[in-house]
Amino acid sequence: MEALECIKTRRSVRKFTDAPVTREEMQQVVEAAAYAPSWKNTQTVRYLVVTDPDKKQRLADGCMLDFAFNQKTTAGAPALVVLTTITGRSGYERDGSFSTSQGTHWQSFDAGVAAQTFCLAAHACGLGTVIMGIFDEAKVAQVVDIPEGQQVSALIAIGHPAEEPVCPKRKDTETLLSFA
Predict the structure, then answer these.
(1) What are the tens digits of pLDDT across the range 16-58?
(2) Per-residue pLDDT tens digits for 140-149
(3) How far apart are CA 139 and CA 94, in angstroms?
(4) How many helices (H) and strands (E) does the chain have?
(5) Beta strand 79-86 with 128-132: parallel, antiparallel or unpaired?
(6) Which CATH number fits domain 3-163: 3.90.180.10, 2.40.280.10, 3.40.50.10860, 3.40.109.10?
(7) Of 61, 96, 83, 77, which Cα lies nearest the Cα of 141?
(8) Rounded to 5 degrees, what are φ and ψ at 30?
(9) Do residues 155 and 80 make contact, with C-beta atoms less than 8 angstroms apart?
(10) Which end of the chain, N or C, is less surrounded by CB atoms within 10 Å?
(11) Cα–Cα dist 137/74, whole Å
(12) Residue 43 phi/psi, 5° resolution?
């Protein structure tokens, strides 16, 4: 799949078939996602894959802040990726001082770039994904035992799509682009 086609055809998928996502598929996607750019090449993003039905249900029931769409998607996805970032590194110098006026924001920026790269790689491999941001980070960390020094940045449901969502209307270039 060509890069522009991949970007233009990737959609947020919330319904999946019952087919499992294999370790080999996950390895292929993460291998590609590892090429996402990051602050000074710190590569602080990590991918924790949850396939255990009981854990997914506990996440759906207790960690989605009663947001029904995320509860249903989490419970119905063959796998849920908990995207974490190593804290205190992205946007910082090794001595702990900030290198940017953006402060701690850069960690979220790196996580977002990595999440989208992950989702594009998954799409290129025939998998569907949706990035979810409505969740209780502390409760997610308890259910899946996030390592010390890492923070949950996003949840990504992944599986073989059971639907092909329609592309929502996009803003035109004239609205999005300006020159200074």
Answers:
(1) 999 999 999 999 999 999 999 998 889 999 999 999 999 999 9
(2) 999 999 999 9
(3) 30
(4) 7, 4
(5) unpaired
(6) 3.40.109.10
(7) 83
(8) -70, -35
(9) yes
(10) C
(11) 15
(12) 50, 60
Instruction: Return the SS3 of 63.
Output: coil
Q: Residues with Cβ < 8 Å from 104, sequence gap 6 or more?
A: 91
Q: How many CB atoms lie within 10 A of CB 120?
A: 20
Tokens matching residue 156: 């990504």
End-to-end CA distance of the chain, in Å? Answer: 34
Residue recorded with tokens 């308890």: 142
User: How many whole angstroms separate alpha carbon 133 and alpha carbon 128?
Assistant: 17
